[in-house]
Amino acid sequence: MSAAPKKKTLAENGDKGIDTGLVTAITNGEDLGPIVRHAFESGKPEALFHQLRIIVKKKEVEIEELCKLHYEEFILAVDELRGVLVDADELKSMLSSENFRLQEVASALLLKLEELLELYSIKKNVTEALQTLKICVQVSNLCLTCNGHISEGRFYPALKTLGLIEKGTLQNIPVKAFRKVIEKQIPAIKLYIEKKVCCEFNDWLVYIRGMAKEIGQLAIGQAASARKREEDMRSRQREAEEQSRSGVGDCVYTLDVKHIDEDSVLEFDLTPVYRAHHIHTCLGIEEKFHDYYYKNRLMQLNLDLQISVAQPFLESHQPFFTQIAGYFIVEDRVLRTAGGLLSESQVETIWDTAIAKMTSVLEDQFSRMDAASHLLLIKDFVTLLGATLTRYGYRVAPLIEVLDNSRDKYHELLLFECRKQIADILANDTFEQMVMKKEYEYDMNVLSFHIQSSDIMPAFPYVASFSSSVPDVCRIVRSFIEDSVNYLSYGGRMNFYDVVKKYLDKLLIDVLNGALLNMIHSGNLVASQAMQIAANIAVLERACDFFLLQAAQLCGIPVRVVERPRSGLTAKAILKASQIVAYNALLNLVNSKFDEFMAVMSNVNWTADDAPEHANDYINEVLVYLDSILSAAQKILSLESMYKIGVGTLGHISDSIVSAFLSENVKRFTISAVMGIDNDLKMLESFADERFESTGLSELKKSTSFRDCLVEARQLVNLLLSNQPENFMNPVIRQKNYGALDYKKVATICEKFKDSPDRLFGSLSNRSAKQNARKKSMDMLKKRLKDFS
């Protein structure tokens, strides 16, 4: 009993120095590797070995005590175990016999099982084969579908099918050879589709270039129609304004609404473009197609911008501009509908290229043109082109600027043509009064230019105050205004009335007035022609108001603006001045003719003894010619103009009579000759009074009558016939009766005045006291005039 406690004490003493961590790890079955590694690394393996030995000894003691504690139970367990071993041997023999029997029975079944397993293997292989075939058939069907789409030209579904093959089933194909074939064909098919759509796109490029001209023509035709509607509206507005001004008729206003959708009219196929763009997008090469489209269209534009050298620009300009218009209409549609195929910057770039070329071409061609109608025709089409492309958002200001810069060139050509036409008209005019037999002739030649002298329709045949050149010139001026407005309208200028007015003045002053002055100064006119020219100028001056009104109406300017003071044409004053030139030329011609008649006065018997019973022969010719001049003037000239001509001619006749007394051919004259001149002068005065009254000139209330124009000749004759000619030296009497006479002329004439020579045996008896007194008075006048000078 005492031995046990002693051992326990020893065990307890042996526990001293045992690592509890090591014990815990061993008890828990943990890995001792880290502890062992740490012991060796620290260089103290002996301590670990000592600890392990102590633990082993401790466990041996525990096992020994456990065996002593359960010894009886262990013996019983061993006995039971031996019994179990006997039972196990019996069971083993039974199992052996049963196994033998089972093997005998199952040998046949094993053969069947092997067959079954083989069948299962075959089934698995067949199933895998079917699955493989199913995938291959599915891929083959997709390939067939893709081929069908390609053969029918449906490339987008073909690409979708390729995408299904490439992304969905290609990697699942179990047959490597088949997969490699498919992988090889997919890029080839994509390349084929790309080439195919590019081929279609190239065909479209050819198609659209051929269609561009037609597209441009249709679009420009729409612009022309819109312009026509605008002109019609302006015309109706002008008519309404005229009716409103005149107060005649009721104005009816209507609103015409007509909308034309350009897309519905300008039909052209962009399907190949959309298709090619979409296909290239699906292929992932969208940028490549963008570049391809841009470069090809730019090459087409460069071809379109080439000027044809085979025909004049006048004939080729319309196809040239319609082609360009069609090109940019197509580009605008592509920009708006093709989903980013073109950028706005690209369109701006090609437009800048095109407009630079067009402006260069226009400037070059305009500089070469020598006909205003050609320049106007091209300008009109260019403005239609500008209006068309403006609707699509293109900037056409440089084109309009070229037209504005060619404005002076156009009007120079127009003025040159008008100068030639007016010169031909004046050269072919006979300057005889124009006769109109029908009312339509009156409307066409008079009313249409507002040059009628009365609003009452005259009887026909109607003899106008002007010659045939006047309406012809008016037609030229009207045409000039229309051509000028046509050129200046629909361009950059909104208010071009002042420009039209400036060129109209230039036409009337430089061309028309210049041509009239050249004809007046040519020296080839007779008096009747000069008179008719003066009448024509008066009518043309009156027509200036119509020309200005027409220019205002065509420019859309209110009539009230034209009717303002100092708003008229400068040409009106110039033509009025030219009338004076014409009147002076007429007077020179008439006076030259009178000089021929008055030259006959040298044949007058200046030393006659007896006074003639009748007037001298020359005065009849003078009166006949004077009557014809005044009668003609009364028909075609105004009273004011007729008055000027009458005053000028009669004054010249008076001067001619006085000059006849002063002529060196007249050495001396007698009182009988003066009496004859007095008879002539009385006839002139009678004619002057009659014409002054019958023609209505007296109603002008002029301070000088026709008789007054003969005052110098009358006062001279009165002085020579006076019984007291010395009264001339009396200032009061001279101012009252002889105010028109000049001292020196009177002195010269009086020196020539000699009384009748003394007759043989009759000088003393026949000379009366009255004659002697007149002679003495005349001698006194001569002496005093000589002293005065």
UniProtKB/TrEMBL annotation:
Protein's GO biological process: acceptance of pollen; Golgi to plasma membrane transport; intracellular protein transport; pollen germination; pollen tube growth; vesicle tethering involved in exocytosis
InterPro entries documented for this protein: EXOC6/Sec15 (IPR007225), EXOC6/Sec15_C (IPR046361), EXOC6/Sec15_C_dom1 (IPR042045), EXOC6_Sec15_N (IPR048359), EXOC6PINT-1/Sec15/Tip20_C_dom2 (IPR042044)
Chief location of this protein within or outside the cell: cytoplasm
Compartment annotation: Cytoplasm, Cytosol
Main function: Component of the exocyst complex involved in the docking of exocytic vesicles with fusion sites on the plasma membrane during regulated or polarized secretion. Involved in polarized cell growth and organ morphogenesis. During cytokinesis, involved in cell plate initiation, cell plate maturation and formation of new primary cell wall.
PANTHER family (UniProt xref): EXOCYST COMPLEX COMPONENT 6, SEC15
Descriptive protein name: Exocyst complex component
Species, as recorded: Cocos nucifera
